[in-house]
Design goal:
It is a single chain. The protein has 128 residues and is of the alpha+beta class. It contains three helices and four strands. It is globular and about 40 Å long.
Length: 128
Amino acid sequence: MKQDVRAMCLAGHDTNLANLAGVLDVDWHDSRQPDDYPPGGALVFDLWREHGRSVVKVSSVMPTLNALRHADFGPDAALVQHTLALPPCHGTTSCPLDAVSAWLATRLDARYIEHDVPSLSSWPDASR
């Protein structure tokens, strides 16, 4: 893992991606891809600082069938990537963390949330 990566989460199945897509109300269908959840596909969640606030960016990265067949992910055309707009941010691809957190709280049933799992929050200011 790169030194500047502060967290990484791996989910192991296509059904995990489908469930996350449902919770996030996003769709990354691409007519070049016959399968929206191919092996090696991923949802990438980035937490950035923009204009002094924490923002979330979500993208899908899916290998093409040709890349899977030849196990060659080097060429630019080997991966189909889409930056996704989250509904609370009305079509923009950079969404404030507080807006995402508030919106997700309305979509998740608190009875089924594991309370021992840390909540989504901004990273501590590294400059201190």
